[in-house]
Amino acid sequence: MILAALLLVTQVAAQDPRLERLDPDARSAVAAIADSANGVGLPVEPIIQRALEGATKGASGARIVAAVRRLAIDLGTARSALGTSASAPELQAAVAALRAGATPQVLVHLRDVRRPPLTMALSVLADLVASGVPADSAAAAVLALAPKARDADLVEFRRAVERDIALGAPPGAATSVRVNAGADVFTNAAGTPGNPPRPRRP
Amino acid sequence: MFEPEDETVERVIQHLRRPVAIDAGLDARVMREIAQASSPRRRVWPRWSAAAAAAAAAAVLGAVLVARPWAQNATRRADTLQFVLVAPQAASVALVGDFNDWDPARSPMQTAHGIWATALRLAPGRYRYAFLVNGVEWRADPGAPAAKDDEFGTPSSVVTVGGRGS
Description:
The structure holds two protein chains of two kinds.
Chain A: H1 2-10, H2 24-39, H3 45-56, H4 61-82, H5 88-100, H6 104-113, H7 119-130, H8 135-145, H9 151-166, H10 171-188
Helix pairs in contact in A: 2-3, 2-4, 3-4, 4-5, 4-6, 5-7, 7-8, 7-9, 8-10, 9-10
Chain B: H1 4-17, H2 26-38, H3 53-67, H4 69-72, E1 79-86, E2 93-97, E3 110-112, E4 115-122, E5 125-133, E6 137-139, E7 157-161
Antiparallel strand pairs in B: 1-4, 2-5, 3-4, 5-6, 5-7
Helix pairs in contact in B: 2-3
C-alpha cells in the first residue's frame, strides 16, 4: 500500500499531459528525469518548463533531454548549497547564478548573510554577469550588499550598473563604484532595519 | 485634370486634411492614463478610440519605459507585470515563457500602432520568456536581462519577481 502510494507520488511527471507536446522518446526520458527529481525532493515544474520551452522552440528530443538532465543536476547542486529548506524559485535563481559562474561557496555565503528568500539576490548576480560583469565581481557585489539591501535596492543596483555599462563604463569598475555607494547607504541605514533609504539617482 | 474617381479621392483628402478638433480635456485624460499605467497595482488597456489612439499609445509606451514594471513590481509577492514589444511590422506577437507553459496561444499580445503589450500576474520567482513574432521569429525582450543559458539556440529574457521588500 505504502509502496503503491510512493510509486504514485514519484510518477507524477509521467502523467503530465503537457509533456504530450514532446516526441514519445523524449517524453519518457523527461518524465523519468522529473520523477527522479521529485523523488529526491527537487522541484519538478522547472524541469517540465524547460522541456516545454524546447518543444515550443522546435528543439530535437535529444537536445531537450540533455537540457533537462543538466537542469536537474544543477538544481541538485543548488539545493546542496542552499539547503533543503530552499524554495523552488530560490533553486531556479541559484541555478542561474551557478551557470553565470558563481561557485556553490558563494551560494552558501549568501545564504548565511541574507535571510530568505534569496531569489532576487541570486537573480541579480546572474543578471549582472549577463550584462558583462565578471562573475567574481558580481558575486562580491551581491554578497557585499546582501545583508542590508532590500530586493528593490538590488534591482536598482543592477539597473544602475547596466546604465553605467551602456554609457561606456568597464563592467567591473561600474560594479565596484556602485557597490561602494550602495554599501555606504545601507550601512548608514543600519538603525532602521528593513527600511533603508534607496540610493539617490544622479 | 482630375477624373471623376480622382475628384472623389481629392474630396477625401481635403476632408482628412481638416484640423481634428481635440477637446480641452484630452491632456487631462492622457495624464490620467499615464498615472494609471504607472500604478504598480493594476494596469488596464483602454478601449482605443480613433481620435485618442496615437496619444494614448505614446502615453502607455512612455509610462512603461519610465515605470519599468519588470523591475519595479519585483518587490511584491504576486503582481501584474506588463510586457511590451515594439514591432510595427508584426502581424502577431505572442508572449511565451515559464509562466504559460511556453504555449503561444495562452498569452497573445494586443497591439496599438505597432506597440504590442500584455499583462500577466506572476507569483514570486525567476521566469524565462521570449516573444514569438508572426509565429516564427523569436525575440528577446530588449528591456529585460538576457537569459544567457539558452540551450535551444534562440534568444530569451528573464524576469524575477521577488518575495519581499527588505
